[in-house]
Amino acid sequence: MKFYIASSFQNRDLVRVATFLFSQNDFIQAYDWTMNEKAATFEELRYIGEEAKQGIMDADFVVMILPAGKGSHLELGMAMALNKRIYLYSPDEDIYHMDKTITYYFLPELRPFVGQLADFISFVIKCENNNVVLH
Q: Record keywords: Transferase included (predicted)?
């Protein structure tokens, strides 16, 4: 089972932890954007964008770790357009505060989770291993 993790660059260590936990359960990361340094040229941006897009297309499911930036929300849109199973992780209740949330977090295609990262990963693994339908 392949996965893609969307998040902001500031969360790259958290993404690496999540990747490790998924890999311990025989899940395969479709693309690891955390290996990139901050792009210095438009060519580098294009290359990273193409790799990330392909990673989303190759993934069976997509995880979004909040807080996330503009790029992550574009990745979320791609995942939705491709009918991917999408899991949304928030370490706090901010997604349930009207002044801090967005419309798309409440669509049936997304499965939100608030809590500890390890609990979230266990939740996703359980859903994926049991073929839980998200929408």
A: yes
From the number of C-beta atoms within 10 Å of its C-beta (0-12, 13-18, 19+), residue 58 rates as middle
Q: Please tell me the total number of residues recorded for the chain in this structure.
A: 135
For CA atoms 28, 94, 11, 21, give the dihedral sign. Answer: negative
Q: For 72-128, what is each residue's pLDDT tens digit? A: 999 999 999 999 999 999 999 999 999 989 988 999 989 999 999 999 999 999 999
Cβ neighbours of 2 (radius 10 Å) = 15
User: CA–CA distance from 130 to each of 9, 16, 134 (Å)?
Assistant: 31, 24, 12
- As its CATH architecture, domain 2-129 has 3-Layer(aba) Sandwich (3.40)
d(CA 31, CA 62): 11
CA proximity to 70, closest of 8, 113, 115: 8
pTM for the whole structure: 0.93
With H, G, I as helix, E, B as strand and everything else as coil, classify residue 72: helix
Residue 61 token pair: 């499911």
